[in-house]
Design goal:
The complex is a heterodimer of chains A (about 325) and B (about 425).
Chain A lengths: L1 H5 L9 H10 L2 H32 L2 E3 L5 E3 L3 H8 L1 H31 L7 H13 L2 H12 L5 H8 L14 H26 L3 H9 L4 H29 L3 H6 L13 H11 L3 H29 L4
Antiparallel strand pairs in A: 1-2
Helix pairs in contact in A: 3-14, 4-14, 5-9, 5-11, 6-9, 9-11, 11-14, 13-14
Chain B lengths: L1 H35 L9 E7 L8 H11 L3 E7 L2 H13 L6 E4 L1 H8 L8 H7 L8 H6 L1 E2 L2 E2 L1 E3 L1 E2 L2 E6 H7 L10 H11 L7 E3 L5 H11 L17 H15 L7 H6 L2 H6 L3 E7 L3 H5 L8 E4 L9 E3 L3 E4 L6 H11 L2 H10 L3 E2 L5 H6 L7 H5 L4 E3 L6 H16 L5 H19 L1
Parallel strand pairs in B: 1-2, 1-3, 9-10, 12-15
Antiparallel strand pairs in B: 3-13, 4-5, 6-13, 7-14, 8-10, 8-11
Helix pairs in contact in B: 9-10, 10-19, 18-19
Classes of the chains: A mainly alpha (about 325), B alpha/beta (about 425).
Amino acid sequence: MEIKQVSPQVKVHDNPKQRKMKQRRYGRGDLFWAYIMIAPLMLGLFIFYVYPVFQTVYYSFVEWGAFGNYKWTGLDNYNKLLTDTDLHRAIRNTVVYIVLSVPLSIFLSILVAALLNQKIRGLTIYRTLYFLPVITMPAAVAMVWRWLYNADYGLLNYALGLLSIKGPHWLTDPNIALYSVILVAIWSSIGNNMIIFLSGLQGISSSYYEAASIDGAGTISKFYRITLPLLTPTIFFVGVISLISAFQVFDMIYMMIGEKNIAIESTQSIVFLFYKYGFTQNMKGYASAIAVLLFVIILIVTFIQMKLQKKWVHYG
Amino acid sequence: MARNLFVMMLLVMMMVVTACGGSNSSNNTSEQPSNNKETETTDEKVTLTYATWGGADDKATPKVIELFNSTHPNIEVKLESTPNKQYWSKLETAAIGETLADVFWMNGPNIVKYGSNNILLPISEQIKADGLDMTKYPQSLVDLYTVNGENYGIPKDFDTPGLWYNKEMFDAAGVKYPDDTWDWNSLLEASKKLTDPAKGVWGIAATLDSQSGYYDTILQAGGYIISDDKKSSGFDKPEAINGIKFWTDLINVHKVSPTMAQMTETQGTDLFKSGKVAMLAEGSWNASDFASNENIKGKFDVAVLPKGKQRGVIIHGLGNVISAQTKHPKEAWEFVKFLGSKEVAVIYASTGTVIPAYEGTQETWVQSNPDVNLQIFIDQLKDSKPYPVSQNTSAWASLESEIFTKAWAGVITPEEAGKEMAAKMNEALEKEK
């Protein structure tokens, strides 16, 4: 849904005359078959997506018991949101995660995409290498990194040891663990973003660059004056998508930090807390309230982004 | 627009109706033979699903099922294995959605919750009708699976913890092996001698573990986890705090164990298997895993847990239960009865995975690895107390790891941890009424 809204390429021609014409082009039989064709998708969407959303909102007002029994408790869960210090901590962790991972990931992805948009030897190999983390299971990625990060027997601290630096406890030191996770998150998101930026770069007409060359522009000024402005729609798109998925970060933290970890309080994200309450403590009512809160936060942030885009996104 | 919507809704309804119709007709065809069942006692095959969380038992369970399938041509059992971490959330979801397996594993913390909510099939009558001798199983386990006077499960196995030790490391440090004369102090003294920071080896891994850790030491210190009437927590009593302090002191005061951070990154069992720690308190189910590990094979043995003020270990065991939603209660009972038989107990015993619950078959398990003193796990039965449970055990048990992690890491004292835990546990127990 979000993708459709922000996709910069779609331009709606909202001319009533045109719309009328369009509608007349389809006969009643065409419409019938069109609905038949999309019915399987719509059914799935309604049963597995739209309906649960409303159910979640409803459950956020109940106290969950064993085996699907529950009782209505009104705003109790929402009152608890206000006083739950764990949750406030989790929101702070999530914000730190977003503020560090999203811009850095976008910056590095553009850099990699720009470098891989040139004609260099072994281009496909580089592109494959950068894309590999994307097609690897997050669980496998997390397991490998856990091993690399292991303070006593990990490769990372072994390498630091050769330089006679005593490496930290990457995943169990409460002051460091969150940054260790962010590092892996950035590493594993570059591939996906790079592909989108690459297609954005290739959509920029070479005539702009030719004209700039004639005017005597150098490589760097071409990048800042042509590439970046014309890439802003893509940056905006990647930004919105990354932000939403960063708000929902869970798997990396679950796999790399885990519940029995002294650093968990300073790393757990909003969704991790949702999982903990909902599935290990079986407080599904309160967990639903957290999900609703997260939904509202994402809604507001995305709305602000949509408003702000007018100031910096150029649809060339 | 309104007409479009109408068309769409119609379509949706049509699909739902046809879908229902389809399943109805298939139900009819499948019901017909089962109606005939009463007249001509069936050569139709019944399929049962058996849900477990596998683990070490995966070595033996397929053999057991194969044997059952070959001796019961009209029943086919299918194994459905889920990792323990997801098993319980999956089971509860299946219970709500009425898609439970016919027969599945149950444990102590969950039996009251499942037994008292009509999720399980009571089997007291079947036991009486078939004359099943329940005295063949340890009484504490039969009681564990009895809820409100009704039997719900047949005990499958049991486990007690022991003190595993690395003989090679003891020899190298010139320390006497642990035995039944050991108390908490002997363990500490030996640990001090075995610890060598320069080599990166420790006397013991003081892991954060309830069943093979602080639950046992709390008993040994004379405390309890939950009161007999299941109404109040024992975590804030001085004895319980001593039981917790035993472990945290090994790490934070005497420094004879890896730190909590280190044991989070590398698990206690891995540290033991790789010869980094000389001792480890762990459950009997590790026997076959340790014995098949190249690095430690033939170099380890096991002793009873050292005594504190008194002896004490937690006993726990799994049970096989039947879903109340099953379509084949008769066949499911047949299978559960088979799983509780001596024949099956011997199969489990000989693979050395778990200690079978059936009386007299434990000897086979002890013999499955004659080099290791497995007998101590059976001997400890006389000092054992049942696993602490209440109506909704997981509501408070899930808080333990969160709170105690801080004590193990030395962020809070054992007193603070015990008091915080007791307060939250009492709050959770209050809700059960």
